[in-house]
Specification:
This protein is an alpha/beta fold. Helices cover 46% and strands 14% of the residues. Strands 2-1-3-4-5-6 form a six-stranded parallel beta sheet, sandwiched between helices. The chain has a six-stranded parallel beta sheet with strand order 9-8-7-10-11-12, sandwiched between helices. The chain binds uridine-5'-diphosphate.
Length: 413
């Protein structure tokens, strides 16, 4: 079956027809997406699904990944932390390395970038490619996936100069929007319901994963899936578990892995292992980047999923868990607020104590867990599937392409 047809069953026929209608005007156009890692983290997860879907609609979409040195990725991780609000003082050489690597990559990608009708640059890492492509033909859009609501000013000042030259930018929530001299669009990310990460699995496969990680068959499972990153607060999750476990027995699984553009993972993993030491009911898993089915099975095996982030651009892990009908206890921040509707699809919390309280409540109330899980799945179906995401990208491309025209007639196609 053709890729798009497969989505009719999940999202509805009219949704797929609508995508075809919207894309008619964009058919044959060249679109290039650029980010800084092929695997690990939400952006890679999104692009792996978005790019084939664009192609299925007749758009020539490709995905390029920039290469960098460890000094470059140290610098861009610093940018990431600073944009999400940490005070990060970077030496001048760091900024120079950032610009040098961008100009090196621009040289390599020059032909593709110059000729493209649309270039989507994801996050700060490749943002300075633009200033190196002098005679660009198409529209360039900066897609910021991180929480930009209260950036550390000195770093943001540097980045703002770079992203100001773009034709438009995209943020995940209105909270993140910054004063910039071009149109800004709000588009929330999405999950692919047909991917290995989210497809239905047999009971046997879920049980198999439970056994593989030696999880107790009768003890509830609390799960957080995340890169080992301080903004995801894995140590806070362990603290919440320890408080909740005093009242009700449970096991905690922290599942994570690295992303090649995140140099801090190893240090945070050591902090997590230290915090978990001595408790046989905590599993700290380091999974390979393609362990999508394993993560899927863990999410299905879990009774409650946590995403106790302190800052979060969106949190695909939240959407993934909700799609599996799990109530989510999420940090009260950023993109989690779009998904975890307090007391409806889960609970939003601000501390380990708050998380512990909600864990206990849900473990004692099976009916509530089922009800919230059902609501969570419906909420994702209505708001966070790939088809909705793609529709908004297409609409944005049409809008940017037409510039300031008062009226865009889509019926011509
Ligand atoms: N993920 C994964 N393996 C891991 C940890 C995370 O495949 O060990 C996936 C996770 O399932 C989700 C994405 O990576 O699809 C993380 O996206 P999210 O938006 O939650 O966070 P980010 O890492 O982009 O900050």
């Amino acid at each position: 079956m053709d890729l798009l047809e497969r989505y009719s069953d999940v999202a509805g026929r009219e949704v797929v027809d609508h995508l075809r209608q919207l894309s008619a005007e964009l058919r044959g156009m060249k679109v290039v997406h650029v980010n800084s890692t092929r695997e690990g983290g939400g952006v890679a997860e999104l692009l792996a699904k978005m790019v084939p879907m664009m192609n299925a609609l007749g758009i020539h979409a490709t995905w390029e990944v920039i290469e960098g040195t460890s000094a470059f990725f140290e610098c861009t991780k610093g940018f990431h932390n600073a944009i999400q609000g940490n005070t990060v003082v970077l030496p001048e050489e760091s900024y120079q390395e950032y610009l040098r690597i961008n100009s090196m990559n621009a040289e390599k990608l020059e032909d593709k970038l110059r000729d493209a009708d649309f270039v989507f640059i994801h996050d700060p890492q490749p943002a300075a490619l633009l200033k190196n492509i002098v005679d660009r033909k198409g529209k360039w859009i900066w897609r910021c996936h991180i929480d930009c609501s209260r950036p550390y000013r000195p770093v943001w000042k540097f980045l703002r100069r770079i992203v100001s030259d773009y034709d438009a930018s995209i943020f995940s929530t209105a909270e993140f929007v910054q004063p910039l001299p071009h149109p800004q669009y709000i588009i929330a990310p999405s999950i692919d319901p047909l991917s290995e990460k989210n497809m239905e699995l047999s009971w046997g496969e879920v049980e198999g994963v439970r056994k593989r990680f030696d999880l107790h068959p009768d003890m509830p499972i609390i799960l957080q899936v995340s890169r080992y990153d301080r903004f995801k607060d894995p140590v806070g999750v362990i603290a919440a578990y320890r408080i909740a476990r005093e009242i009700v027995p449970m096991q905690l699984v922290l599942a994570g892995g690295g992303a090649s553009d995140d140099p801090e993972g190893e240090v945070v993993l050591q902090e997590v292992k230290k915090a978990a030491a001595g408790d046989p009911n905590i599993r700290v898993l380091v999974l390979p980047p393609d362990a999508h089915r394993t993560i899927n099975a863990l999410q299905r095996a879990a009774d409650i999923v946590l995403q106790k982030s302190i800052k979060e651009g969106f949190g695909l892990t939240v959407t993934e868990a909700m799609w599996k009908s799990k109530p989510v206890i999420g940090g009260d921040t950023g993109g989690i607020r779009l998904q975890v509707i307090d007391h409806y699809t889960g609970f939003r919390v601000q501390s380990p104590e708050g998380a512990a309280l909600r864990i206990r409540y849900l473990l004692f109330n099976h009916g509530k867990r089922v009800e919230m899980g059902r609501q969570a799945k419906r909420f994702v179906r209505e708001n966070f599937l790939l088809t909705r995401h793609l529709r908004e990208y297409l609409a944005l491309m049409i809008a940017v392409f037409h510039g300031f025209e008062d009226r865009i007639d889509l019926t011509r196609n």
